[in-house]
Design brief:
heterodimer, A: Peroxisomal Thiolase, Chain A, domain 1, 2 domains, 13 helices, B: mainly alpha, 59% helix
Chain lengths: 411, 78
Amino acid sequence: MSDRVAITGVGVVSPCGLKKETFWANLKKCESFIDEVKRFDASLYPSRIAGQVHELDHYSHVSGRLVKKIDVFSHMALVASEQAIKDSGMDLEKIDKNRVGVFMGNAIGGWLFAETELRDMYIEGREGISPYMASAWFPAAPQGQVTIYYGFKGYSKTIVADKASSALSLWYGSKVVAQDKNDFVLAGGMEAPITPYALLSANTCGQLSKNNLNPKTAYKPYDLDRDGFVLGEGSGIVILEKESKAKKRGAPIYGFIKGIGFSSDGYHYLRYAPESDDLEYAIKECLKDAKWNKEDVDYICLDGEATVIGDYLETQALKNVFGENIKNIALSAPKSIYGNLLGAQSALDLIITLFSMKNSVVIPTINQLMNDPYCDLDYTPNKLKEKTINKALIIARGRGGINVVLAVEKK
Amino acid sequence: MELKKEVIELISKTLDINEDEVKADQKLYDSIGVDSTEMVELVVTFNKHFGVKIETNEITKFSTVNEIVDLIERKKQF
């Protein structure tokens, strides 16, 4: 068997926990962690509910001197990276830092810092703006901050691809490890869209739930009454390294990244194509890349956009690719519990899938109460389900039809 | 307040570090490891606080607190 890419450490900053243990324990409660946005006045926003991280400073190891210079999305990435490094047992004194890379994904960059500083510039003039504005807001900032913090100098990249950003960063990172360009890669994503401008901007896409009076039940993928997804913020980072090297140093192995499939709808800059062919192509390409038969898949972590068209197309794609066999595969969208983290989402989907494999349990899709005749699969509604999972797929779809499917296996 | 103490307080507050880390007779780079962007922030802070006009090339990360105090005193006389 070829030398696979192993996942040997995880770090989580999420609305339902800032440590892997808390994150998993809270997911198993199958309760919503979505609340009204109160950190600024969002009362006139069409969608003003979100999954929010409230205790970042409490869990942070980052100095006040550095926190002042960076946006919160970089701060989240630093906290998740520190957890992942410790979890993997990487010895920072012994490793060759020239062979450690950082592959990050996010969709929108760091707006809290940008909004504040641009306001100050227009009010106070040239000298009102922080000199750190230039390095704080842009999408590659977290990659830069993590590499600087630890002195990592290996080949690194940031990927921006809407809700598929971290799925692509995980794949890109795993390829670099497989090709032996780096010994270790920190891969994942971060997103902090709960700011006055970013939330307003996200509202204009028309995909967010406006069920503000019922934040706990607003995000309801595949439910007849669904009206869009709910935003979340956070970061997920994993450590990737070759299986042989991980075993040699006695590192814990959560699982392996086995393949990827991707495609683009090439139809519209925001909307999906009206048929599910392109998503089907991505799923088939992923199975081919992983050298799996469609009967091999035990679990699929779904995109679960909770829009009328998004959920329908995803359901159609699954039926068309897997046929009758889809009934033997567990399906769920655990992000319904804490919100959709956009560019960071797939990294958390990966971590949830790895924990599900380890514990042989499927985290459900919550808030699914009324069946939609066009979304008629078993999406594991509302309750945990026991299931032995060895092989899983993770689906991520960005706006305009950026389709990415990852294949992950346990053994 | 003594000018030197005031400058040290401003550096500490602006960069979020302890005052006792800032040594008056050492280069800022040696005592607290400032970088060039932090120096821009410090120059803007000094200009606002003391009502002077220091250019960013007049003090660098290799300046000491004592040199900065001298410069501010000279600028204030004009």
